[in-house]
Design brief:
The chain is an alpha/beta fold and 190 residues long. It has 6 helices and 5 strands; from the N terminus they run βαβαβαβαβαα. Strands 2-1-3-4-5 form a 5-stranded parallel sheet, with helices on both faces. α3 links the parallel β3 and β4.
Length: 190
């Protein structure tokens, strides 16, 4: 079974985006699609980025663990809130920390906001950063407007059938990209 790392990128107290990360974890496992691994940046407390992991002389155990979780995942879902039209510094920090681990990794992005647009302004900034380091950003999006109304604290959606329908399209696109990546890697290794 494939493993999907779900990055919960907000470290803010009272964060609501983590609700969506919990939803995706439940959705993947309940539907037997993939093993979910929630990578909660709040648990890491990373210092500000000062150098890529591969160039650090004495990397922290947390940085090494984070790198392994991303490297070992077949794909990644990033759940990010919108902060002033962009993504949080905690997410930029870990994107810049790694390089090889992101290369050709299928990454799907879910944006979240308390407002009516679902954090869609985040897409451009995070996609550009991921593109520059060689990640494969999945073309499907999963914006979540009014997140506190849409999901409870355990990640249960207010309108389960509508959210599951959107999630199916989003996850199917990610899984297609994972399969395509594996197929291409197999062709190049033989």
């Amino acid at each position: 079974m494939k493993t999907i790392a779900i990055i919960s990128s907000s470290v803010r107290s009272g964060r609501n985006s983590h609700r969506v990360a919990l939803y995706f974890s439940n959705y993947l496992e309940e539907n037997n699609i993939a093993k979910a691994d929630i990578v909660d940046l709040e648990e890491y407390n990373f210092p500000l980025f000062d150098e890529r992991l591969r160039l650090q002389k004495d990397p922290s155990p947390g940085a090494l663990e984070f790198a392994a979780r991303i490297r070992d995942a077949d794909g990644v879902i990033i759940v990010t809130p919108e902060y002033n039209g962009s993504h949080p510094a905690s997410l930029k920090n870990v994107v810049d920390l790694l390089y090889d681990e992101w290369r050709k990794k299928p990454v799907a992005i879910s944006t979240v906001s308390d407002g009516p647009f679902g954090g869609t302004q985040v897409i451009t900034s995070i996609q550009f950063s991921l593109w520059k380091i060689g990640a494969w950003t999945v073309p499907a999006m999963f914006p979540v407007p009014r997140v506190a109304e849409a999901f409870d604290e355990e990640g249960k959606p207010a309108d389960r059938s509508a959210v599951d329908k959107r999630a199916a399209r989003f996850i199917n696109e990610l899984m297609w990209c994972i399969d395509a990546t594996e197929l291409m890697a197999a062709r190049h290794s033989s």
